[in-house]
Amino acid sequence: MTDNGRKFSNSMMEKLYEKFKFKQYKSSMYNEVADGLAETFNKTLCNLLKKIISKLKKDWQERIGESLWASRTTHHTLTGVTPYSLVYGVEAVLFLKREISSTRMAVQEGLTTEDNVKLRLQELEAL
User: Where is the signal peptide, in residue numbers (predicted)?
Assistant: First the structure.
């Protein structure tokens, strides 16, 4: 989604849209669909912020990152997946899930092959 700026409306961008099969949507000052989506997301974000900010409500700018993370890593009913997985193609690894050892995390953390084999065997035995 773009505004009506010239940088998004030119032949080079149009070729790019065609090559990657993008659909270009332009937004103006008032667009019912775009405004509705923004309002829905803003309402969700405000509700999340209300749950985590202090009673004085002065720390919202410090906590907005947590609210956005919560929104991006929560399964949405309409799509059935998280926004994070739609953007990056994998599910986010939440810190609380890291306590359970997994082969994927072992590889990412750079364990040796021998340690990785031991970890896989432990996972198989746990099944």
Answer: none
